[in-house]
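Design job #97: recover the sequence.
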């Protein structure tokens, strides 16, 4: 089906800032679209699109649109996540809506994946200005001066080990406090 398209979608994400749900949906769309279609078309169900986002959609069980049970809330939230991700992909120009959904008919999208078209969109420029997410999918953070991490100091002193038994440090227990997390240089003993 869409093996070539999946590769193109992965390459597209390197140059275009996509949110996690947008990327997951784009990969799901690329998997089900035909590589041979020009342009490739996606026309699967909303449930399949939600599954591409990692959301299992419960079956609809009532005709009442105002039902407030857990299944109906989960179904509504999954479809809203699909709608938001699709809106972002359309705004970026990654996909283009060719047919709107109607009763008994699914929506249809063309998968474009043209970085040049995307860079000309207002959405792309807005994301670049805000810095969220960066081209590789991560938010760019300003660099801080100084060392980011402490260098290994070797074995902790007995006083440091004893101090960790008090429970003041979050995430440690007295059982694990004697374990050294310092780097081990195995070649130092062999060289002598």
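Job complete. Output follows.
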């Amino acid at each position: 089906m869409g093996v070539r398209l999946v590769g193109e979608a992965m390459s597209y994400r390197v140059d275009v800032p996509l949110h996690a749900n947008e990327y997951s949906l784009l990969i799901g769309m690329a998997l089900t679209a035909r590589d041979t279609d020009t342009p490739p078309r996606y026309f699967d169900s909303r449930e399949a699109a939600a599954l591409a986002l990692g959301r299992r959609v419960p079956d609809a069980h009532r005709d009442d649109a105002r039902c407030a049970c857990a299944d109906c809330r989960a179904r509504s939230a999954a479809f809203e996540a699909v709608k938001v991700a699709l809106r972002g992909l359309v705004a970026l120009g990654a996909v283009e809506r060719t047919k709107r959904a109607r009763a008994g008919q699914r929506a249809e999208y063309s998968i474009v994946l043209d970085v040049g078209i995307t860079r000309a969109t207002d959405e792309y420029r807005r994301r670049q200005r805000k810095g969220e997410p960066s081209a590789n999918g991560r938010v760019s953070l300003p660099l801080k001066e100084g060392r980011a991490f402490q260098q290994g100091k070797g074995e902790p002193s007995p006083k440091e080990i004893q101090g960790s038994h008090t429970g003041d440090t979050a995430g440690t227990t007295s059982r694990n406090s004697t374990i050294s997390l310092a780097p081990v240089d195995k070649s130092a003993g062999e060289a002598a």
